[in-house]
Specification:
Blueprint (H helix, E strand, L loop, with lengths): L1 H33 L2 E2 L7 E2 L3 H8 L1 H32 L6 H9 L6 H11 L6 H8 L14 H26 L3 H9 L4 H12 L1 H16 L3 H6 L11 H11 L3 H29 L4
Antiparallel strand pairs: 1-2
Helix pairs in contact: 2-13, 3-7, 3-10, 4-7, 5-7, 7-10, 8-9, 10-13, 12-13
């Protein structure tokens, strides 16, 4: 009977398990094998063991791309969280056209990253972009944005935060609607003001949603690529190059697929450690009802 049940289990798992094995597990194992070789995608692979890892860990370029990725995450996460939470609080009220605005703010989430990046590249054009035109009309400084090494990464952060606001809004809105109204009413009866209710009641009860948003946003942040590739291509002068962009360049621009695979596994290890620390630390601040 157990063997019969196991057969049915495998039968129903196969439609999901087979693509998972073919397109996720096999490529991961293959990339691990490639990371132990020197390979230019054309010539036969040459075994080098851990040399690719040791070279990458001692290479200043690796340090720079991880630093840029960390700066991206440090700028992106507060913007997208604060903006998404603010929208969720606003659209949780009884406002005219509330459903329309919810859909409108979520629309960028399902829009192609290439389209969004091209639109923002036009908006932030230093000479003819709408943003600099408005700043000039207000008498404010007009940054060089994606053409300036200082402003290239902030330009990508702005575009990324704008696109992902709707995703965070939906998650936080679901968390807000799950808060029992009697708890808020009790706080109001006890004399708590709007700020006190938000800080002492709403925000702690939103901690599961906050935890989910932070974990997912950091994972996505460390894997940022599309918007960087379209808006800046890692420039100018490598000022906005990130880890996944470096993996792409090592593979297809420089023909160093072994080092690219090793760098991808280093990135995987970093994301795994950070996520594990977040999961372990949630006991201190995440409160499940």
């Amino acid at each position: 009977m157990k063997k019969r049940n196991a057969g049915w289990v495998l039968f129903f798992l196969a439609p999901s398990a087979v693509p998972l094995i073919l397109f996720t597990v096999v490529p991961m194992v293959s990339s691990l094998w490639v990371s132990l070789h020197r390979w230019n995608l054309i010539s036969p692979m040459e075994w080098v063991g851990l040399d690719n890892y040791t070279h990458l860990l001692s290479d200043p370029a690796t340090r720079d791309v991880f630093l840029h990725t960390l700066i991206y995450c440090a700028g992106y996460l507060p913007l997208v969280f604060a903006g998404g939470l603010g929208l969720a609080l606003l659209l949780n009220q009884r406002l005219p056209g509330r459903a329309f605005f919810r859909a409108a703010y979520f629309l960028p989430v399902v829009t192609s990253w290439v389209v969004v990046a091209l639109v923002w590249k036009w908006l932030l054009n230093p000479t003819s972009g709408l943003v600099n035109s408005l700043l000039g009309a207000l008498g404010a400084p007009q940054p060089g944005w994606w053409t300036d090494p200082t402003w290239a990464l902030p330009a990508v952060i702005l575009a990324s935060a704008w696109k992902d606001l709707g995703f965070v809004m939906v998650i936080m809105l679901a968390g807000l609607q799950a808060i029992p109204q009697d708890v808020l009413e009790a706080a109001r009866t006890d004399g708590a003001g709007a700020w006190q209710r938000f800080w002492r009641v709403t925000l702690p009860l939103l901690s599961p949603s906050t935890f989910f948003v932070v974990v997912i946003s950091l994972i996505n942040g460390f894997q940022v690529f599309d918007q960087v590739y379209v808006m800046t291509a890692g420039g100018p002068s490598g000022a906005s190059q990130v880890v996944v962009g470096q993996i792409y360049d090592l593979t297809f621009r420089y023909g160093r697929a072994g080092e690219a695979s090793a760098l991808s596994w280093i990135l995987f290890a970093v994301i795994l450690v950070i996520t594990a620390l977040q999961v372990r630390g949630q006991r201190r601040w995440v409160h499940y009802a």
